Amino acid sequence: MSATWLVTGAAGMLGQDVLARLVGEGLSAVAADRAAMDITDPASVRAGFERHRPAVVVNCAAWTAVDDAESQEDAALRVNGTGPEVLAAACRAYGTVLLQVSTDYVFAGDAEKPYPEDAATGPRSAYGRTKLAGERAVLETLPDTGYVIRTAWLYGAGGPNFVRTMIKLEGVKDTLDVVDDQRGQPTWTADLAGQLVRLGQAALAGTAPAGVYHGTSGGETTWFGFTREIFRLLGADPARVRPTTSDAFVRPAPRPAFSVLGHDCWAAAGMEPVRDWREALAEAFPALLRTERP
Predict the structure, then answer these.
(1) How far is 128 from 102, CA to CA, in rounded Å?
(2) pTM
(3) Mean pLDDT of the chain
(4) Hey, which residues are catalytic here?
(5) Distance of CA 46 to the CA centre of its chain
(6) pLDDT score of 212 more than 80
(7) CA-based diameter of the chain, in Å?
(8) Buried b (16+ CB within 10 A) or exposed e, 152-176
(9) In whole angstroms, what separates CA 30 from the centre of its chain?
(10) How confident is the model at residue 1 (pLDDT cuts 50, 70, 90)?
(11) Could you tell me the domains of the chain?
């Protein structure tokens, strides 16, 4: 009997791709949305574990409304902090591997070179603080079987995201002003899903050290550079995309100016990091285009 993988937040953009990858590889996968298992409720989580006896849990459930978290930090903390804590306790009791998806927002965003996995954290937003709380709960509760995978700038066909928005706007706007003072790594959810499944398999095999990994694409760019590449793939003139600064788009939660993450820890697990963002975007683009221009 094959090991069972439980995916929380299975209806989300990343969760959909994790499930698709598991099914595609012939692995036993269980999708758990909030109705099936509330990760903030210990009784609900225990019932889910009793029912499915998972060998691996991939926690894609999260409060991702970054700006709303500024005024609703307690609610965000319940999902992003308490939820992983409850899952980690259940995983400890059942001998289960936990893959906790986290974020670049746990850093201050003021670095000038890629953040290594062991870099000091310093979140500047409520969202970042709540996600860091979840990280700490997992690493403290599961020192041998807890894995934190930080990611950033996610896009995919299974939900709203920056790429789909830019595809839509290209068709209705003559020009677009896009921020050029925030730097990061656009990451395709299908690529991250593959990385998560490989990491979980390595964890079960005992070949991947527990701890923090960075699940972002190789290379780096700004939102402005990202949008120009999207326009190029559309066959549109990239010059229609104009650079601007973050001051032009003031939001409740501060955005990290620098979100580039280092990938050194994959080598210890015998795995290659995620490929370059341009290569991934080119492969992902047909499906993304169909979602906006059927």
Answers:
(1) 9
(2) 0.97
(3) 96
(4) 127
(5) 25
(6) yes
(7) 57
(8) bbbbbbbbebbbbebbeebeeeeeb
(9) 19
(10) low
(11) 4-159+186-219+259-275 (3.40.50.720)
